[in-house]
Amino acid sequence: MYRYVIRRLFLMIPVVLGVSFIIFSILYFIPGDPASNILGVGATPEAVAQLNEQLGFNKPFLVRYVNYITDALFHGDFGNSYQNKLPVLGEIAKRVPISATLSFGAIVVSLVIGVPLGVLSAYKQYSLWDKVPTGIALFIAATPAFIIGMLLMLIFSLRLGWLPVSGITYGWKSYILPVISLGLPYGARQLRFTRSSMLETIRQDYVRTAKAKGASPRIVIWRHAMRNALMPVITVAGTSFGAMLGGAIAIESLFGLPGLGTYIADGIKFKDVPAVTGGIIVYAVLFSLIILLVDLSYAFVDPRIKAKYVEGGKAK
After folding, report:
1. How far apart are CA 277 and CA 90, in angstroms?
2. CA dist., res. 289 & res. 310, Å (int)
3. Phi/psi of residue 310, each to 5°?
4. Alpha carbon distance 33, 213 (integer Å)
5. Distances from the Cα of 278 to the Cαs of 10, 151, 273, 281, 314, in angstroms?
6. Is the pTM of this model over 0.90?
7. d(CA 28, CA 171)
C-alpha cells in the first residue's frame, strides 16, 4: 500500500503541471491586461504600459510560465497578487480553512440526511417512505444552492434574526446557514446514490441468505447490505467534498465568506494571474489528495480491494 500511495503522490506532479499550464494559457489568451483592470478606464496608456511592465506581463508567455512554475514548485513562491501586492500563498492559507470548514459541514449534513433516507427508501421501495423522500430529493436537487441560501437567509436572518446574514465574525453561527444551503442539494444527491446502491445490494444472494437464516432486518440492512453499498456513497461524498473546496463560489459570495472559491473568482475579474493560478494549483493538489484518501478508504470497506495491496501477507 505504501508503494501505491507514493506512486499516486508522484502522479500528482504531472497533474499540477498540466492544470497550471492550462490555466496560465487561458488567462494569457483572454483579451485585456491586468493593468487596465487595476487602474480603471481613466488610466493613460503610459501608466498602463508601465504597470504591465512592473507586473512582468509584457514578457513572452513561455518565459512567464517557466519562471512562475519554477518558483512555485521549487521555492514555494506563488508570487504576489496584482490587486493587493500580498503573497498569494499567504492569502490562500487564510482562505482554505474557511472553505474546508464550509465543505466539511456540508458533507456532514448531506450524509446525515442522504444516507438514512436513502437506506429507508430502498428498504421501503415503492411505498410512501420511498416516494416522498425521493420526490423531495428531486425537488431540492433541481434547486440551486444559492436559492436555498436566499430563502434561509430571508427566514432565519432577516425575519427571525436568529442567525447572522453574512461574514465570519460570529464564529460557528456564521457557518450554519451556508452549510445547510450547500449541504441540502448534496444530501438529495447522496440520497439518490444511496438508494440505488442499496437496491442493487439487497437483491444479492448473500442478503437473501441472511434473511433466510432468520437475521433481523436491522442486521441485514446495516451489517450486511450497507457495508457493501458504501463504496458509491464514499465516492460521491469524497468527490463532492473536493468539488466544494473551490466550487462553492455562489454560497461563499452570498454569505460573505472569504473562501478559496471567491479568491479565485475575484482574481479572474482582475486577470490576477498569480492569484488565479496559485489558487487553482492548491485546489488541484487538495482535490488529488482527497481522491487518494477516497481510494484508500475502499480497502477498509471491501476486503477484496485490500487484498490487492497485500502480497504474501506483506504490504506492497
Report:
1. 14
2. 22
3. -115, 135
4. 72
5. 19, 34, 8, 5, 40
6. no
7. 39
Task: Identify the three-state secondary structure at position 37.
Answer: helix
Q: What are phi and psi of 12, to 5 degrees?
A: -70, -25
Nearest C-alpha neighbor of 84 from the set 243, 274, 311: 274
CA distance 118 to 192: 6
Task: Tell me the torsion sign for CA atoms 62, 11, 95, 147.
Answer: positive
Q: Which residues contact residue 10 at a Cβ distance below 8 angstroms, ignoring those fewer than 6 apart?
A: none
Which grid cell sits at 260?
478559496
Going by the DSSP 8-state scheme, the letter that residue 10 receives in this structure is H
Which three-class secondary structure state does DSSP give residue 33?
A: coil
Amino acid (one-letter) located at 102: L
Q: Both ends of the chain: CA-CA distance in Å?
A: 5
Query: Cα separations (Å) of 112 from 107, 108, 116, 125?
Result: 8, 6, 7, 20
Instruction: List, in order, residues 6 or more apart from 310 with CB less than 8 Å away.
Output: 1, 316
Residue carrying C-alpha cell 494569457: 28
CA–CA separation, 156 and 177 (whole Å): 8
Distances (CA, A) of 86 to 14, 79, 89: 28, 8, 9
297 neighbors 226 (Cβ within 8 angstroms): no
User: CA of 109: how far to CAs of 52, 116, 162, 184, in Å?
Assistant: 46, 12, 20, 7
Query: Per-residue pLDDT for the chain (316 aa), expressed as one digit of tens each?
Result: 677 778 888 888 888 888 888 988 888 777 777 777 777 777 777 887 887 777 777 778 888 888 888 888 888 888 888 777 888 889 999 999 999 999 999 999 999 998 888 888 888 888 888 889 888 888 888 888 889 999 999 999 888 888 888 877 778 888 899 999 999 998 888 888 888 888 888 777 777 787 777 777 777 777 777 777 777 888 888 888 888 887 788 888 888 888 888 888 888 887 788 888 889 989 988 988 998 888 888 777 766 666 665 554 454 4
